[in-house]
């Protein structure tokens, strides 16, 4: 009986799922960019939750807490999709924030209006990326996931707009 030494080498078997390598790499790059944007949203939402400004009290803390959990769940789905496509997600938080399309620089202005603006910008990014997945990359799996994420962010933005309207009255 032969004994095989187990090495700490991780075999990388690339998926054979009907997407060419170049397409998969482009989608993985796109998903890492979305993950970076989600990281910025997560950071800003968590910061707003822990430090509500004057007019934003406990109601906003509960709202931000709920949104933070949704954003973290979305981030996990994006990470999983990157792995499904045979890619590696960016793990370094600083690198994620610096590569995001949303401004990740801490400026202390994590109020509801700024967070709403970031969600709306992210929704526009998602629309463009979903369209690329469908029309250019022919990756219907990623397309469906992005549409699902888009709908969550649209709902978050709608709730934030309604909160702003209520506060204005």
Instruction: Catalogue the unreliable spans.
Output: 1-9
What is the total number of structural domains? Answer: 1
Query: How much of the residues is beta strand, in percent?
Result: under 5%
Give the H and E element order. HHHHH
CATH superfamily: Ferritin, core subunit, four-helix bundle
Largest sheet: none
Secondary structure: number of strands: 0
Rg over CA atoms, rounded to whole Å, is 19 Å
Molecular shape: elongated
Task: Tell me the structural class.
Answer: mainly alpha
Helical fraction equals 55-70%
- Here the CATH topology equals Ferritin
Q: Which class in CATH terms? A: Mainly Alpha
- What is the terminal separation in angstroms? 80 Å
CATH architecture: Up-down Bundle
What report would you give on this structure?
With 169 residues, the chain is mainly α. The protein has a single domain (21-100, 109-168), classed as Ferritin, core subunit, four-helix bundle (Ferritin), CATH 1.20.1260. 70% of the residues lie in helices and 0% in strands. The chain contains five helices and no strands. The N and C termini lie far apart (80 Å). 31% of the residues are buried. Residues 1-9 have low confidence and may be disordered.
Q: What can be said about this structure in brief?
A:
This protein has 169 residues and is mainly α. It has five helices and no strands.
